[in-house]
Design goal:
The complex is a heterodimer.
Chain A: H1 15-22, H2 29-33, E1 77-82, H3 104-107, E2 109-110, E3 112-115, E4 120-123, E5 127-133, E6 136-141, H4 155-167, E7 176-181, E8 186-191, H5 196-203, E9 207-208, H6 212-224, H7 228-240, E10 251-256, E11 260-265, H8 272-275, E12 279-284, H9 287-296, E13 302-303, H10 310-315, E14 320-323, E15 330-335, H11 345-354, H12 357-365, E16 370-372, H13 386-391, H14 405-414, E17 418-420, E18 423-425, E19 433-439, H15 443-459, E20 462-468, H16 470-477, E21 485-490, H17 497-505, H18 508-512, E22 518-523, E23 531-536, H19 537-543, H20 549-566, E24 570-571, E25 573-575, E26 579-582, E27 586-587, H21 606-609, E28 614-615
Parallel strand pairs in A: 1-12, 19-20
Antiparallel strand pairs in A: 2-9, 3-4, 5-6, 6-8, 7-8, 10-11, 11-12, 13-26, 14-26, 15-21, 15-24, 16-25, 17-18, 22-23, 27-28
Chain B: H1 2-28, H2 33-44, H3 50-63, H4 69-81, H5 95-130, H6 135-149, H7 152-166, H8 186-223, H9 226-233, H10 238-275, H11 281-291, H12 294-322
Helix pairs in contact in B: 1-12, 2-3, 5-6, 5-8, 5-10, 5-12, 6-8, 7-8, 7-10, 8-10, 10-11, 10-12, 11-12
Classes of the chains: A alpha+beta, B mainly alpha.
Chain lengths: 618, 335
């Protein structure tokens, strides 16, 4: 249970200084750099070509050294797909229209990643150090790192990123009190949360792209704005701004045409030694089908997180190594609490007993991409047993809601429902009728909906599955509550349960489903027959950032218990964010390597930034 | 003259009416650009809180504040009459700029498609008519019906997978190679033809059959006319009879079909250009529909509508030149 400040410990060693002292190049960070997180770690990479000189990293030597050895590359171009017309895009994350999309994974940097294998937060490779002491987070940039235009990375760039996030009301803003540039290389952030895991989690996966001399002007305008409307004006200008492709990532864009991005390895990036001499080629294609076809013919070296059918999966050549990792979020049933049946806890529980979560996940897109939720707790990380690690011994007492129609019948009958002519009727004698609304273009979700619909009908509910196109679903169906049951993301995509609970209670999707703040829950924790108490899940969740240690853990347990018993939402499955790396021409760490589990960010591109993925040589 | 003004006036009214109707209908589609944006942000940033997503969406909304549909209509139509199609909500660029850059490529593919479709269709149809009842006629009638029954996008997907991805004979997308500079050069023209080959082939193979069968039917009708017997009795050469008597009369009804095909091909380009990742008018229209990008959608729609109306008007105005029987009557309609 004492997970809060133990398993998630952030490495607070001076990583690069340590490595320099040990005599390794910057890319040696890949293996030993985070030794502070687990000194016994070994990274089991792909066996290297006998003549290529690529070495495994179990001896602590970085794969990054491969690029510095003799022989020509088997492939000197890192080929990846994009669904955007390259010459049309921009690189400003705050302008969501037609931003560069997945290409940013190779061109921009991140602030923090979350390595699921050892439950550790890892700082961007462009940071020398990142520490959290009480409510002070200190980020020290690596002064040898440069932007793609050659300007050195400075602490002011980090400060600009944090300030822009605050002014643009972006995710980390709610955990930050203030930010200050302390020196050329050091930025100090004062946190509004006592809980450093929540602080780090808020920044996990966040892109770092705000060069001070580009975005500083906006920061200044925000600071000079005297009113909310003036700040709104600046915000609109930021949202309209189209930034050039100046980043900090491993590749620098050199050309953008209608069909391709071209780039080259950036000599100011810490992974440069590992990728020196490589080019980047990003090819435009249309959607997942185009990407799949490029993969089937082996034309690309990386396939981002797409959901593939079993048959599509079988068509991919063997050269692709699948790297599955839980996305810490997934498909859950957000049921409309305005519905008179759904308002009844017994009815929600009955559906939980009817819905065969494993079958739904299987039918949605196979278990390669969807992990069925075991016990609903609102805490993601199923494949890593994250719920168990938070809930400890209490986990056993949580209700599993394993598929059991007899139990569902009993629960319903106890609540006054009855079955007539094979159809369930409510206590008022009216037939139970439910409308399930799913976004039409999201095939895996629709498959899940069809399976659930079938299960509910077989049980005797009168249900109808309606599919609407995604913009309609987003713009009309959800906000107007035009559904009895609709799927939504649960889990928060962050390791700390706070984010998962927040998604269930304080999100727009929770608002769309009219999820109440409070529920009657049997207490104490672990006793489903206990006396009913009202638990305000929303308020308890809001308290979490101010708690740490055992107090935080206890609160997590109570909220999870309330979720388990009241089922404000029914988590069905967790998304497995599988990506594919080509291993025929590239040294790629094995799928169970620690670095291949850094998610968020979700695209599993982090190993590339750490110099873990290198070209093979003849 | 009155007839010409009448035709032009009707064409303009048709365009304005269609554009106005489209304007209203597009805005009646549930979900707008901001809803699409919300979905995009959520898909790209699964960990982002809803408040943060709302903040980004609201910032975008402030760029184009809400107006009533009447205000939007008046504002839009007055801009259109001044030649300004607005700014794309998704791309952030002027719609004029996007479409002007994309239009030549679509015209290139469409022109080639029409040229080959009609050349093959007319030629094949004429021969089939002359050889009516022969094995050649039966075979190519069947082939024409078969290919005409295949949707062009199915053939497009098949070509892309087999000829591009599997056999690597054609590019998998794009309009031209990055290595070949855009300009009036043989290398560029060949490269553009190479990239347009599969989209053109998809259109031609699935459409030539209709023209061939139509031409065959027209030709057989003409072959039964008395004036042909008279021509033969007069001892006119067979080639002259074939081209000037049969061919010319049989092809006349296809003239209007050709003009209407210009419009339908623009419509077909929407899906085909998306399949081949070929950024022309159709590609951008597909993206615009998906993104609920009203200005870009309308801009592409105006071009397609105008092309159809202009083509039919052109057919109407010029039909008399190729068929003297139609030249005298101001009341005649070719459509």
């Amino acid at each position: 249970m004492p997970r809060d400040n133990k398993r998630h410990e952030f490495p607070e060693i001076e990583r690069r200084e340590l490595l320099r002292n040990l005599g390794f190049g910057a890319t040696a960070v890949v293996t030993a750099g985070l030794a502070g997180c687990g000194s016994g770690d070994t990274t089991e990479s792909q066996p290297a070509d006998d003549e290529g000189g690529g070495t495994g990293t179990t001896d602590g030597e970085s794969q990054g050294t491969t690029a510095q050895q003799g022989g020509t590359f088997l492939d000197d171009t890192w080929n990846v797909p994009t669904d955007r017309v390259p010459e049309n895009v921009h690189w400003n994350d705050y302008n969501a229209t037609n931003v560069a999309g997945a290409t940013r994974n190779w061109v921009q940097e991140y602030m923090i990643g979350y390595r699921q294998a050892d439950a550790t937060y890892v700082p961007s490779p462009v940071f020398e150090d990142l520490t959290v002491d009480g409510t002070t987070m200190t980020i020290t940039v690596d002064d040898s790192v440069t932007w793609h235009d050659g300007d050195p990375l400075t602490a002011e760039d980090v400060t600009t990123q944090v300030k822009m996030d605050i002014y643009m009301q972006q995710p980390p803003a709610d955990v930050i009190e203030s930010v200050e540039t302390v020196s050329d290389t050091e930025t100090e952030i004062t946190l509004s949360t006592q809980n450093r895991e929540i602080a780090l989690g808020a920044y996990a996966g966040r892109r770092f792209h705000t060069k001070a001399d580009v975005f500083g002007e906006f920061v200044q305008r925000f600071e000079e704005a005297g009113s909310d409307s003036a700040r709104d004006d600046v915000r609109a200008d930021v949202a309209e701004f189209e930034d050039e492709a100046t980043g900090l990532g491993p590749f620098r864009i050199t050309e953008a045409t209608t069909r391709h991005f071209y780039g080259e390895a950036h000599d100011g990036h810490p992974a440069y030694d590992a990728i020196e001499g490589l080019s980047l080629e990003v090819t435009q294609t249309t959607g997942n089908q185009g990407i799949l076809q490029m993969g089937i013919t082996g034309n690309i070296d990386y396939i981002g997180p797409v959901v593939l059918s079993e048959s599509a999966l079988e068509q991919l050549p063997e050269q692709y190594q699948i790297n599955p990792i839980g996305n810490l979020n997934g498909h859950g049933l957000f049921w409309n609490h305005e519905n008179k049946h759904i308002q009844r806890p017994a009815f929600r529980k009955a559906i939980a007993y009817v819905a065969d979560r494993r079958r739904i996940a299987q039918n949605a897109a196979s278990l390669n991409f969807k992990a069925p939720v075991g016990k609903p707790t609102g805490i993601p990380g199923i494949n890593q047993d994250v719920p168990q690690s938070w809930l400890g011994d209490n986990y056993e007492a949580f209700t599993a809601y394993e598929t059991n129609t007899d139990m569902a019948t009993q629960v319903l009958e106890n609540a006054g429902y009855s079955k007539s002519g094979g159809t369930w009727q409510g206590p008022d004698g009216e037939t139970v009728s439910l409308e399930l609304v799913y976004p039409g273009g999201w095939t895996d979700w629709v498959n899940a909906g069809q399976t659930l619909n079938s299960q509910l009908q077989n049980f005797g509910f009168e249900t109808e599955l309606r599919t609407v196109d995604a913009p309609t679903w987003n713009g009309q169906t959800r906000p107007n509550g035009e559904f009895d049951i609709t799927p939504q993301w649960w889990g928060g995509a962050r390791p700390h349960p706070f984010f998962g609970f927040r998604a269930l209670t304080q999100s727009s999707q929770a608002g769309d489903a009219s999820v109440p703040d409070s529920f009657e829950v049997p207490m104490p924790v672990g006793d489903p027959e206990g006396s009913m108490e009202e638990i305000n899940i929303t308020e308890r969740t809001k308290e979490l950032p101010q708690l740490s240690g055992e107090e935080a853990t206890q609160t997590v347990v109570e909220i999870a218990w309330a979720v388990n018993q009241a089922l404000p939402v029914l988590p069905i499955m967790e998304k497995i964010g599988a990506v594919w790396y080509a291993t025929n021409d590239w040294n790629v760490p094995s799928a169970d390597d620690d670095w291949m589990t850094v998610n968020p960010p979700t695209h599993l591109a982090w190993p590339f930034h750490e110099g873990q993925i290198t070209p093979q040589r003849e | 003259m009155h007839w010409l003004i009448n035709r032009l006036g009707r064409a303009i009214l048709t365009i304005v009416g269609t554009v106005s109707l489209s304007f209203v209908m597009i805005r009646l589609i549930p979900g707008g650009p901001l809803d699409y944006l919300r979905g995009q942000i959520r898909n790209q940033n699964p960990g982002m809180s809803s408040d943060a997503i709302d903040a980004l969406v609201e910032a975008q909304a402030a760029i184009n504040p809400d107006q009533s549909i009447v205000e939007q209509y008046v504002s839009y139509m007055s801009s259109v009459f001044q030649g300004d199609l607005g700014t794309s909500t998704w791309y952030g660029d002027p719609v004029n700029q996007i479409l002007i850059e994309a239009l030549p490529w679509t015209l290139f593919v469409m022109a080639l498609s029409l040229l080959f479709t009609f050349a093959i269709g007319i030629g094949l149809g004429a021969v089939m008519a002359y050889k009516e009842g022969s094995r050649f006629d039966y075979t190519f009638s069947s082939v024409s019906i078969f290919f005409n029954s295949i949707p062009y996008y199915v053939l497009g997907v098949l070509f892309l997978f087999v000829l591009s991805y599997q056999m690597d004979l054609f590019p998998t997308g794009g309009r031209s190679s990055d290595a070949v500079p855009v300009g009036f050069s043989v290398a560029f023209l060949l490269d553009a033809l190479y990239h347009a080959a599969l989209p053109v082939l998809s259109f031609v193979l699935t459409r030539f059959g209709f023209q061939a069968l139509a031409m065959r039917g027209n030709s057989i009708n003409v072959l039964g006319e008395n004036y042909l017997r008279a021509a033969k009795i007069r001892g006119l050469p067979g080639r002259r009879i074939a081209f000037q008597y049969v061919g010319r009369n049989a092809v006349l009804p296809l003239y209007t079909t050709l003009m209407i095909s210009i419009g339908t091909m623009f419509g077909g380009a929407v899906i085909l250009e998306e399949i081949f990742a070929y950024p022309g008018i159709g590609y951008y229209m597909f993206q615009a529909i998906d993104a609920r990008d009203y200005p870009l959608m309308m801009g592409a729609f105006i071009i397609i509508t105008t092309a159809i109306v202009a083509a039919i008007l052109f057919a109407d105005l010029t039909y008399g030149l190729i068929d003297p029987r139609a030249s005298g009557g101001e009341t005649r309609e070719t459509y």
